[in-house]
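Troubleshooting: if your tokenizer reports a length mismatch, compare your output against this known-good record of 337 residues.
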Amino acid sequence: MKGVLFICLLLGSLYGDTVLKIASYNVENLFDLETNGYEYTEYIPNTDANWNTKTYKIKLKNIARVITDINADIIALQEIESMQALKDLRFTLKQNGLYYQYYALADNKNTNIKVALLSKIPFVYSKSLSVSASFSYRDILETKFNIEGKELYIFVNHWKSKSGPESKRIVSAKALLKRIKILGEDKNIILVGDFNSDYQENIKFLRKREHNDTDGKTGINHVLKSTKQTQKAVNTNYEEGNFYNLWYDTEPELRYSYIYKKNKETLDNILISQSLLQRKQIYYMPNTIHSYKAEYLFKKEKIFAWKISKKMPRKHKGEGYSDHLPIVADFRVTPSI
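Known-good structure output:
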């Protein structure tokens, strides 16, 4: 009873709809100050690379500033090294006045960066979804919520980078789809994170021969079936088993969360199941998808990434945020009757 009351107080009155803000942010290598043997060379603590208490605290403070300004109810995170790093970020956020009581990390595998989730809302469970035994693949974080009696599943992803071919990303996509089919494709499901894939990867992919080892098939478009619904959400027709990429619900020039060689890209995505397009229970609010583009996140028309010198030995400069922009979308929760 206390838990139900808490949720009601947190989300608002039972007699009015509630807006649920969900975000995702690749924070770019949030490593802690412990040495466990999996660090990138420039993140080994207390060496000439200048990764130490001072630079770590600056990184935490900067990332916390972004997350605080967004103030999402639930935020998915990518490139978190450890539970210690997640807890340190959570503590820094609390110092800013933003308290995420609930948190989880896909921590079943000793990869050097992982995915995580911070939430103001309690979840029923959270667990790591294994993509492969190979350390080339990061686990996916599966979290189930029950909000006013309505189930919601969120899967936090960080697929293989473009340093590898598309077949690597298809492995993650297939593992994700396999789990979704077990749950049921009719469920309220949000797929979020850094997919290292454009929302139109199936089109742009044809020009990237070095990545095309799959005869033109892509994980985000073909495995997750996100090619049929390419109009704004208000005009979207029901296509059972297909996921809708929310990037289609904003203007083309605004569709980016990453800039590579002056080219704007959408490595970060939010895809939703068909039930979240229907105006029942929990549903996506049209025209709310966007990347968070605060002025301080840019420097000379580039995203103000965390700065490390290019000259050897590489050293942390103690400035910058992340090479990605956060992405945000709103969902409406209808009251119980």
